[in-house]
Known about the structure:
By secondary structure, this protein is α/β, with parallel strands linked by helices. Helix content is 36%, strand content 28%.
Amino acid sequence: MRAEGLARRFGDLDAVAGIDLEVEPGEIYGFLGPNGAGKSTVVRMLTTLLAPTAGRAWVGGVDVVERPGDVRFLIGVALQEAGLDKKMTGREVLVTQGRLFGLTRAEIDRRIDELSPILDMPALDRLVGTYSGGMARRLDVAAGLVHNPKVLFLDEPTTGLDPPGRVRVWEEVRRLNEEVGMTLFLTTQYLEEADELADRVGIIDAGKLVAEGTPADLKRSIGVDVITAHIDGDAAAAMDALAGIEGASSVDQFGSEVRVSATNGGRLLSPVALALNRAGVSVRELAMRTPTLDDVFLDVTGHHLKAGAT
């Protein structure tokens, strides 16, 4: 899968501002960002549901604009808003999806059995209109998998799921990747989901790809340890107090939060506390932890990633 200068404009809004992507066959690629960042718009272009304003993209080596019909037979899609007929039963939804892709009834029944870990099997013969949001979400993911697609697009697949449902989807994603070698393009606003599942992560913010790499490499770019000091009062005074502190690889300020990155945070924690105290800086909280993807997001965008934010 590849995109070059992919862009989409809605009136005066650049929803996607010319991004380049390359996803290797058999890779799980996590597309991480808050709501409104452009994740779903990218997915809709890659899955032929929305024409790009500029740029080109290929899925399975097929141009998404020039040959959209061929692309649709290569892919499976579970969008953020499940497009399920509420007047059909869950089983009818899966059977219809399988028939559209040329599967026999025996093949469909086998696939339903294989997908049972993520389905609510007792509910399959009930109308979709009676499903809870989580049940409908899992059915939609299963529908995108019925025909064993070459590439599977999952647009925030676990939004609205309870923790057990989220774990079941994660397990199925891993199984498909490991046993079948399926390529997965996963958009998410959940840091732990990207960290848990993705071979590589692309971070999108305001329509731009701002960072890309393996979760480990992205976190390593911040430093081995992160010390955070939440300041009551003048954060600039804290920055002055910590400027040039020995052993710190970087000192950054984000609002009332001052962050010190270091290769050995344990040794630096006490000197940081002492330096702030000597400068008369009031510290509400001082803590040390290993870097997270949220630290990466903060580093490249200047703000935290908050799931559910608009």
